[in-house]
C-alpha cells in the first residue's frame, strides 16, 4: 500500500508528536516530588542555619558541642567551608570592629602597601566618640602598611578613616563593602560605618563574619596582618612606638592563655555590640574559623574562652560530625536568603514555579499527538460519518 504525500506528512507529524509525548513525560516526571530540576547552591542542611537554636549533626562518638552564652556563634572548616555547628547563625547583630575584616577585604586589594600618604585633617573628622585609636596624626606621612597595622592590631578607627579616604570616601567605601559582602555570599551584613562603630541599621551575623574571616585567610597580605602580634607605628614627632594586637587569644595578654595554632583574625567591642570575635586556628593541616557574638556570661574574657571552646570542639570533632551547612551556600544563590531557598525547594517538589507546570506539558503533548492521529485518519479514510 502506498501512502500519499499528505498522508505521509500526517503520519510523520503523528510520530513526532508521540515521540515528543514520550520524551516529555519522563522529563516532566523528573521534576516531580523529591527530585531537583537543576543543581542548587543551597542544600537541605544549609537551610538549618536559618532556624533558631543550636544545630549540630553528630555521628557516633562525636564530642558534645559546648554550651555557650553567646547570642550567636559558628565554627566551620576554613578549607572546605563546611559548617560543623552553629547557634543562631544568621541572627543579625551589631558586629563592632570585626566588621573591619570586611573593610580590609574590600579596600586592601586597591591600595599597595608601599604607598605613602600625608594625612589631611579632614580625613580624621567625624571619628565617633570613644573610638579605639592608633594615633594617626594630621600632616604626618604614613605608609599604607602602617595604617593596616593600626587597623588590625590597635583596631584604630583613625586608620580606617584615612584608608577609606584613599579608597573613595566614607560613604563610597560603605557601599563597596556591602557589594563585597554580597559577592561573598554574606547577605546579613549592612554597613553604615566602615570601622564597625555602632550606627543604626548596621548589622552582621555569625555566618557572615565567618565568611569574611575565611576569605581573609586566603589573602596572604590579610593573613599576615591579622596574625601579627606586635608592630611599630610612626609617632607624631618622627619616631615610632610599639603597638600590640588587642586579640588576647593571639597575644595571651591580661591573663588569657594564647591559643595554640591561632592565625588571627579580629576582635571587637562596643557598648551596643558587646564583645565580638572572629578567630582562626590551624592544627595538623586543618584550619578552623569560629565566630562568637556578644557572650552574656558577665566574664570580660568570655568571648575568648568561648571561641577557645568552639575551636577545641571543632578539632576534636574532626570526622565525627556531618556539616549543618556551608559558608559557600549563598555565594551564587538568588537574593532573599531563606525565602529564595524555599522557592528552590518548591521547584524541586513540583510547586508553583516559573514556566508551565508539569500537567500542562504532558497534556499539551498528548493533545498534539491526538490531533496528528485525527488528521491522518481523515486523509486516509475520508470524513467520519455523522450520527
UniProtKB/TrEMBL annotation:
Annotated GO MF terms: serine-type D-Ala-D-Ala carboxypeptidase activity
UniProt enzyme class: hydrolase
Matches recorded under InterPro entries: Beta-lactam/transpept-like, Peptidase_S11, Peptidase_S11_N
Chain segments annotated as transmembrane: 358-377
Record EC number: 3.4.16.4
UniProt keyword annotations, A-Z: Carboxypeptidase, Cell shape, Cell wall biogenesis/degradation, Hydrolase, Membrane, Peptidoglycan synthesis, Protease, Signal, Transmembrane, Transmembrane helix
Tree of life domain: Bacteria
Ranges where the record places region Disordered: 332-352
Any Pfam family: Peptidase_S11
Gene3D superfamilies: DD-peptidase/beta-lactamase superfamily (3.40.710.10)
Record's signal peptide: 1-29
Keyword Mitochondrion (UniProt): no
Domain Peptidase S11 D-alanyl-D-alanine carboxypeptidase A N-terminal span(s) in chain numbering: 63-295
Protein family according to the UniProt entry: Belongs to the peptidase S11 family.
Name of the protein in its database record: D-alanyl-D-alanine carboxypeptidase (Penicillin-binding protein 5/6)
Species, as recorded: Streptomyces thermodiastaticus
Amino acid at each position: 500500500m502506498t501512502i500519499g504525500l499528505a498522508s505521509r506528512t500526517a503520519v510523520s507529524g503523528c510520530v513526532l508528536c508521540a515521540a515528543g509525548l514520550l520524551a516529555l513525560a519522563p522529563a516532566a516526571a523528573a521534576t516531580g516530588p523529591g527530585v531537583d530540576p537543576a543543581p542548587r547552591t543551597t542544600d537541605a542542611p544549609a537551610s538549618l542555619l536559618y532556624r533558631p537554636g543550636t544545630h549540630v549533626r553528630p555521628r557516633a562518638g562525636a564530642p558534645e558541642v559546648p554550651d555557650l552564652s553567646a547570642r550567636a556563634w559558628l565554627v566551620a572548616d576554613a578549607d572546605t567551608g563546611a559548617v560543623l555547628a552553629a547557634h543562631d547563625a544568621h541572627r543579625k547583630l551589631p558586629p563592632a570592629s570585626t566588621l573591619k575584616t570586611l573593610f580590609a577585604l574590600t579596600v586592601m586589594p586597591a591600595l599597595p602597601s608601599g604607598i605613602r600618604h600625608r594625612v589631611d585633617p579632614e580625613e580624621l573628622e567625624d571619628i565617633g566618640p570613644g573610638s579605639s585609636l592608633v594615633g594617626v596624626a594630621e600632616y604626618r606621612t604614613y605608609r599604607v602598611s602602617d595604617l593596616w597595622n593600626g587597623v588590625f592590631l590597635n583596631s584604630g578607627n583613625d586608620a580606617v578613616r584615612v584608608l577609606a579616604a584613599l579608597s573613595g570616601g566614607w560613604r563610597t567605601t560603605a557601599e563597596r563593602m556591602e557589594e563585597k559582602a554580597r559577592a561573598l555570599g554574606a547577605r546579613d551584613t549592612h554597613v553604615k560605618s566602615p570601622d564597625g562603630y555602632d550606627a543604626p541599621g548596621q548589622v552582621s551575623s555569625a555566618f557572615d563574619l565567618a565568611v569574611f574571616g575565611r576569605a581573609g585567610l586566603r589573602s596572604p597580605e590579610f593573613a599576615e596582618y591579622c596574625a601579627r602580634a606586635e608592630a611599630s607605628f610612626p609617632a607624631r614627632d618622627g619616631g615610632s612606638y610599639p603597638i600590640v594586637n588587642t586579640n588576647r587569644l593571639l597575644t595571651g595578654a591580661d591573663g588569657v592563655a594564647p591559643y595554640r595554632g591561632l592565625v588571627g583574625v579580629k576582635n571587637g567591642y562596643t557598648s551596643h555590640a558587646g564583645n565580638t570575635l572572629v578567630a582562626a586556628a590551624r592544627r595538623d593541616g586543618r584550619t578552623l574559623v569560629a565566630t562568637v557574638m556578644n557572650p552574656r556570661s558577665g566574664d570580660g574574657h568570655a568571648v575568648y574562652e568561648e571561641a577557645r571552646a568552639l575551636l577545641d570542639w571543632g578539632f576534636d570533632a574532626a570526622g565525627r560530625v556531618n556539616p549543618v551547612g556551608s559558608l559557600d551556600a549563598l555565594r551564587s544563590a538568588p537574593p532573599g536568603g531563606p525565602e529564595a531557598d524555599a522557592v528552590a525547594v518548591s521547584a524541586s517538589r513540583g510547586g508553583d514555579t516559573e514556566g508551565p507546570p508539569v500537567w500542562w506539558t504532558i497534556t499539551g503533548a498528548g493533545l498534539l499527538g491526538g490531533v496528528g492521529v485525527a488528521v491522518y485518519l481523515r486523509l486516509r479514510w475520508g470524513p467520519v460519518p455523522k450520527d
